[in-house]
């Protein structure tokens, strides 16, 4: 007798062949029913898509002078799949490039998800390192160089806050950018125009489809779409004026300067101090450098022209005068006596000039910046009316300039103080002290608006030339001041007198052959020396330029800020003469 | 012995599969310089294996019978020695390295396990309803399985444990007993499915069947209590055992259940294998014209995923051919087992047929995305010397049974 009767044999055979039948049906399903689907998948598998970075667009000044361009540089990268010993390669690269093995490892692991894209180890490789790697070429399979475009800045630190800098996005940011077609390791704008106009300047990556062999080597290129370089941006800045403004501002000072055309809002020069070198960010930014910049308490990356709000000091007196005139409490000839101080309620408000100004009319009060005159005016001023005109002149909210991170400053109203309101606060506001805060760019627009009767929206972008030939120019935006022309005329005369008059506080801003109108300011601040202010427009008759200067902790506006304004205005008008002479 | 005694229905499919295997390995490795010698080496091992097959075929059954336990002991020692002084490779210890040769002791262990089980079950007096007769074969298989799990090589351990079931069935174990013997494993699989997918359907079905079997069969109270306690124990132990699995083992199971979850990680193999096979269509892309397997998108394509190469290049035609060769091989072997007069040789034949069936089903199921990636090679086709030699030795055993089919 043998084991396994016929019944058991049948069960075993049928069971096993049944399983085989199921397997065959599965193969049938994959290969026949779903065959077309998998064939399409398999074709994608064989063809590798390789993106090509687009060149970032250059940035030029209004006359076409290049401010930011691209230069070629070497980037050393690793193809992880092609290296021999990954550990030794990473250690060697970390050492020789100065990046550190840890950083190389971090970059490798960060890019696990994109195995066919080379891992960039260090950008902007110095030639000596390049040569060293080249010597060890055969010991370092899988190490490649890429020629990449780097940002370069022909004028160094010039206008660095307007231009901004570029850097690698964080992993979190990249997750978002990837959906918009950004490639791993691409640089993006981090501040200034580079950030604000990132979409225009970035361009569109190209793509290359290649057929690859078993080892991922290219067999042939199947199709190719050129990258579309980023748009060419023409700024409203004028390099010569920018240079003049930065020179005039001087070294070692902190503060900001904005010069613009009050007719259309073109920003001709914008200075913020201290400055930074954007080229630092364009190559490899070492951790130490970045930490040093972050720890710098003078905040060099801050664009003080739009991102800092200061008490305006006496530069606000033209506003108070304007409110008084519009309200009808004073006219051109209204005179007040100044004895150096003014008693209101149980408080004594002092004039900056201890011995007093004597008898002054409105124009004299603006010209000599008499505090007492404005205290007396403020006694009758309604803070909400005052705030309404301040806002009409562009204060208290962002100007809408095309630069990132603009702050709006503060124009307080009665509501802001709530139950703490007393008219005494108005006396302080009238001379630009107290809670009111303004940005330099707001003050440049403010001065320009008084000069022309129209408030413009400032901007730094003049014209865009896209690489597909499309061009567009930024349309200036402005609005009329709700102020009668004769009122403005009186305020302007006061500001003219401040520069041209014998006793004017802004005499240092005079420019030969041009009638300049301006106003000094000395903003008290509890943290130290006063901030020196000067705002101006010129020519008096038909303004083509307006500016605001603030120098932090520098003393009197007339002594510090006005001379800077004078130099910048001289440069502006001498350049204009040259232009007209041509 | 005459020509008629040679079981051509076993020998011819094996030779055909060997040839397809060498061609598949050639196609899979042709693009990689370092692997150029693989098909040659596979052919060489095929030749050596055919020699071993003939050798085994001509050993007198009596000698095989008396060698069964000594060979079992030798394999046991080799498995223990491997754990003590084997060569670690990719986190596991599966090979002894001698020069450029890597011997995998778990492969010959299949051969000696079948001999040992056949030798024990050959005894006419055994009563496979009694625990004292079930326990020894169970321990014989479990010991190997346990040692191989420690390597760790879950797939091979499973196949070693699996051999026991058809051999017990062939030896006359009643279906209910066989079911109860299998039930812990079934319970474990169903419970794992529940843990991983949250779907208790399989486990519920299992419990219903188990209850029905116990109710109908009505074993003694002590046995009933034992089975119920055991199953409660397994049901609660599975989640914690799952936690103790290797990361890569867990990932394989999860990736099997949801290959799309991580297409570049563990699910990659399954997905790429399906793409390769699916894109083959009816007739395939042509020999050496596969893009997926040829372009190395499918990993382990010359070993565990060799079927992906054939499926892509020869299409459904190729897969049908391979399943047909295996089908004929297994069908003829089982039929032969029914004719062989010697209980020992008959059991050996069924053991060989069932291990081919098991490995084929698991490997093909894995390649087609029906089963988790277990790392079991496809007999006769996958690249690997140890596996090839062991399976050809088993063919020798079956042919031996064919030659001696009329002897008791």
- According to CATH, the fold-level topology of the largest domain in chain A is Beta-lactamase
Mean pLDDT of chain B: 85
Strand order of the largest sheet of chain B: 1-2-3
Q: Total domains of chain B, how many? A: 1
Q: What is the rounded distance between the termini of chain A?
A: 123 Å
Unreliable parts of chain A: none
CATH superfamily heading of the largest domain in chain A = DD-peptidase/beta-lactamase superfamily
The CATH architecture designation of the largest domain in chain A is 3-Layer(aba) Sandwich
Give the number of DSSP strands of chain B.
3
Give the assembly state of these chains. heterodimer
Query: What percent of the residues of chain B sit in helical stretches (DSSP H or I)?
Result: 55-70%
Overall structural class of chain B, as computed from helix and strand content, comes to mainly alpha
Question: Into how many domains do the coordinates of chain A divide?
Answer: 2
Order of helices and strands of chain B: HHHEEEHHHHHHHHHHH
Class per helix and strand makeup of chain A? alpha+beta
Which two chains touch over the largest interface?
A-B, 38 and 56 residues
Distinct helical segment count of chain B: 14
> What is the CA-based Rg of chain B, rounded?
22 Å
């Amino acid at each position: 007798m043998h084991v396994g009767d016929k019944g058991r044999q049948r069960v075993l055979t049928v069971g096993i062949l049944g399983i085989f039948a199921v397997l065959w049906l599965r193969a049938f399903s994959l290969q026949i029913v779903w065959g077309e689907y998998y064939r399409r998948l398999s074709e994608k598998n064989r063809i590798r898509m390789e993106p090509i970075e687009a060149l970032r667009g250059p940035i030029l000044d209004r006359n076409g002078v290049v401010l930011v361009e691209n230069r070629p540089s070497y980037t050393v990268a690793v193809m992880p799949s092609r290296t021999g010993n990954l550990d030794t390669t990473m250690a060697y690269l970390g050492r020789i490039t100065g990046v550190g093995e840890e950083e190389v490892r971090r970059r490798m692991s960060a890019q696990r998800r994109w195995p066919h894209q080379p891992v960039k180890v260090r950008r902007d490789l110095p030639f000596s390192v390049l040569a060293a790697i080249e010597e060890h070429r055969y010991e370092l399979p899988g190490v490649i160089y890429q020629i990449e475009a780097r940002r370069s800045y022909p004028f160094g630190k010039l206008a660095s806050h307007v231009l901004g800098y570029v850097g690698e996005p964080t992993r979190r940011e990249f997750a978002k950018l990837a959906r918009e077609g950004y490639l791993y390791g691409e640089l993006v704008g981090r501040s200034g125009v580079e950030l604000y106009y990132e979409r225009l300047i970035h361009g569109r990556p190209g793509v290359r489809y290649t057929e690859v062999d078993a080892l991922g080597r290219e067999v042939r290129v199947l199709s190719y779409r050129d990258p579309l370089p980023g748009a060419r941006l023409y700024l409203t800045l004028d390099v010569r004026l920018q240079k003049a403004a930065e020179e005039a501002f001087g070294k070692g000072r902190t503060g900001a300067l904005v010069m613009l055309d009050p007719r259309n809002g073109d920003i001709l020069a914008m200075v913020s101090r201290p400055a930074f070198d954007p080229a630092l960010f364009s190559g490899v930014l070492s951790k130490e450098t970045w930490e040093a910049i972050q720890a710098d308490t003078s905040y060099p990356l801050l664009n003080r022209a739009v991102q800092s709000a200061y008490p305006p000091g006496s530069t606000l007196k033209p506003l108070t005068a304007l409110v008084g005139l519009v309200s009808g409490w004073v006219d051109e000839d209204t005179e007040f006596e100044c004895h150096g101080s003014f008693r209101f309620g149980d408080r004594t408000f002092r004039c900056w000039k201890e011995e007093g100004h004597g008898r002054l009319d409105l124009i004299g009060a603006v010209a000599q910046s008499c505090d007492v005159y404005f205290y007396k005016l403020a006694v009758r001023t309604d803070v909400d009316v005052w705030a309404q005109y301040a806002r009409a002149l562009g204060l208290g909210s962002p100007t809408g300039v095309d630069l990132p991170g603009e702050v709006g400053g503060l124009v307080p109203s009665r509501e802001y103080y709530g139950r703490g309101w007393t008219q005494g606060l108005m006396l302080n506001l009238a001379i630009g002290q107290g809670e009111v805060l303004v940005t330099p760019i707001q003050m440049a627009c403010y001065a320009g608006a008084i000069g022309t009767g129209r408030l413009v929206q400032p901007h730094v972008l003049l014209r865009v030339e896209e690489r597909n030939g499309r061009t567009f120019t930024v349309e200036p935006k402005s609005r009329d001041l709700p102020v009668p022309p004769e009122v403005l005329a009186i305020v302007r005369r006061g500001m003219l007198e401040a520069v041209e008059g014998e006793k004017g506080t802004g005499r240092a801003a005079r420019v030969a052959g041009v009638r300049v109108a301006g106003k000094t300011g000395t903003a008290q601040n509890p943290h130290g020396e006063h901030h020196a202010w000067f705002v101006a427009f010129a020519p008096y008759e038909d303004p083509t330029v307006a500016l605001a200067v603030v120098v932090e902790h520098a003393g009197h506006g007339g002594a510090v800020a006005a001379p800077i304004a004078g130099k910048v205005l001289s440069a502006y008008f001498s350049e204009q003469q040259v232009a007209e002479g041509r | 012995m005459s020509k008629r005694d040679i079981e051509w229905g076993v020998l011819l499919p094996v030779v055909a599969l060997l040839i397809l295997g060498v061609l598949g390995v050639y196609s899979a490795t042709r693009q990689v310089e370092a692997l150029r010698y693989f098909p040659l080496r596979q052919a060489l091992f095929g030749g050596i294996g055919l020699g071993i097959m003939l050798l085994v075929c001509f050993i007198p059954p009596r000698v095989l019978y008396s060698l069964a336990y000594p060979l079992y002991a030798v394999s046991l020692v080799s498995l223990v020695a491997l754990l003590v002084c084997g060569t670690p490779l990719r986190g596991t210890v599966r090979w002894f390295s001698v020069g450029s040769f890597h011997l995998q002791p778990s492969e010959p262990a299949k051969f000696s396990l079948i001999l040992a089980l056949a030798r024990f079950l050959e005894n006419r007096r055994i009563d496979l309803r009694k625990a004292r007769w079930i326990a020894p074969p169970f321990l014989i298989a479990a010991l190997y399985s346990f040692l191989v799990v420690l390597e760790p090589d879950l797939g091979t351990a499973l196949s070693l444990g699996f051999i026991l079931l058809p051999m017990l069935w062939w030896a006359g174990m009643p279906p209910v007993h066989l079911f109860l013997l299998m039930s812990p494993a079934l319970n474990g699989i169903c419970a794992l499915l529940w843990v991983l997918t949250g779907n208790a359907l399989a486990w519920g079905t299992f419990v219903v069947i188990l209850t029905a079997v116990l109710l109908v069969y009505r074993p003694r109270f002590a046995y009933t209590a034992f089975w119920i306690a055991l199953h409660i124990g397994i049901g609660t132990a599975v989640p914690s055992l799952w936690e103790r699995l290797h990361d890569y083992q867990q990932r394989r199971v999860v990736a099997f259940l949801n290959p799309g979850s991580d297409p570049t990680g563990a699910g990659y193999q399954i997905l790429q294998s399906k793409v390769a096979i699916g894109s083959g269509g009816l007739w395939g892309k042509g020999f050496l014209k596969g893009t997926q397997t040829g372009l190395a998108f499918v990993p382990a394509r010359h070993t565990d995923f060799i079927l992906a190469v054939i499926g892509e290049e020869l299409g459904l035609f190729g897969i049908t051919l391979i399943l047909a060769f295996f089908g004929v091989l297994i069908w003829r072997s089982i039929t032969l087992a029914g004719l062989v007069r010697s209980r020992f040789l008959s059991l050996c034949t069924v053991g060989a047929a069932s291990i081919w069936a098991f490995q084929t089903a698991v490997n093909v199921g894995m390649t087609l995305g029906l089963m988790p990636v277990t790392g079991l090679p496809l007999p006769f086709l996958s690249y690997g010397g140890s596996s090839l030699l062991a399976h050809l030795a088993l063919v020798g055993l079956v042919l031996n049974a064919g030659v001696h089919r009329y002897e008791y």
